[in-house]
Amino acid sequence: MDSVTQAALGAAVAGAIAGRQCSPKVLLAGAALGTLPDLDVLISYGDPVSDMVKHRGFSHSLFVLLPFSLLLSWLWQRWRPIPFSFMRLWLLVAACLITHPLLDACTTYGTQLFWPIPYPVSISSIFIIDPLYTLPLLLTVVAALLWRGRAAKLCMVGLGLSTIYLSWSLIAYQMIEQRVEQYTASTDLEGKPVFIAPTPLNTVLWRVVVKGEHTYWEGLVSLFDESNEIALIAKPKGTFPEGLQPSKHINMLDHFTSGFIKYEQRDNILVVSDLRLGMVDYLPFQFALATQSAQGDWQLTDPRQLESPNVQPKHLPALWLRLLGNQDIDANLCHISECPDITASVVNM
C-alpha cells in the first residue's frame, strides 16, 4: 500500500495498543514504524528487474521483522525509557511492523512474507491506493492527536472500520472468483490459470486475466453487472524466442508473476511485461531484455525498464460507467488502449 496508508495504519495500531499511555509521540512513532519496511526502496539490486522482484523482500519478512522488533524494543527501552512494560512495548513495535507486510500481501504486487523462502504472497483483494480503507485510519488518527483522552478508542474505531472494509474486499474477491469459475465452466478456458485484481481506488470493478499457452484473455467484471456474461478479449501472450537461453531475469519475472507475463517484439527488441499490474494495455512493468541482430539472432542484454503509456483522463468516464455495471462498455475496451482489433468471442460456450 502507499506510504500514507501504512503510516496511518502504524499510528492507529500504536495508539490502540498504548491505551491510556497513547500520546502524539506514540502515534508518530507508530507512523514511523509503519513505514519502516518500505525503506528497502532505497536499496539498488543492480537492475530494474531485480529491484522489482526483490522489493518487499527481507524487510517484509516475518522471519526478519519478529526478531528485529525484539531488538528495537530492547534498544528503545534502554536508551529512551517509556511508561510501558517490555512486553507491551514489544507488542506495539512488532504489531506496527508486521501489519505493514500483512496489508501489502492483500495487494496485487505480492509480498515475500516468508523470505528467504522464495514464495511471494499476493491475495490481490485491494488496490495499492484505496481511500475507503485509508480514510477511516487517517481521520481517526488525526482526531486522536486532537483529543488525547479518547485517542486509544479513536484508533480502535479506525482499525475496526478499515478491517471491516478489508474483510469486505476478500468477500468481493471470492464473489468475482466464483462468477469467473461459473462462466468459464465447460468452456475452453475451464481450468486455466486466472488472475483477479481490483481496478484502481475501489472494490466494485475487477480486472480478470485468464492465461493460456500462447494467448491470454482479459475483461472487466463489476459487482453491479446485471448479466453474468463476461466479455473476455483475446490477446497474444507471445512466446520466448527459439534458440535464446532464458536469463536469470526472465526466470525471476516468470516466478514472481506466476507465469502471468507476455513476450512481444518491438522492432528488434524483446519486451517482457507483467500482466498482473496495470489495466488493459497500460502495463507499468515492461522490460527490454534482448535484441535481435540483422541476421535474426537474439542476444540477451542488460535489463531496461520501458515507459508505459499513462491512462488518459478522457477514458475515466468509460471506466466509471463500467464500474456501475454498464457492460456495453466492454465492446470498446480495446479501443480505449488502442490495442489491435481482436475478436472477443474466443470461448466455445
Automatic annotation (TrEMBL):
Pfam families: YdjM. The chain crosses the membrane at residues 58-77, 89-111, 123-147, 154-176. Keywords: Hydrolase, Membrane, Transmembrane, Transmembrane helix. One of its GO terms (molecular function) is hydrolase activity. The keyword S-adenosyl-L-methionine does not apply. This is Hydrolase. The lineage of its organism: Bacteria, Pseudomonadati, Pseudomonadota, Gammaproteobacteria, Vibrionales.
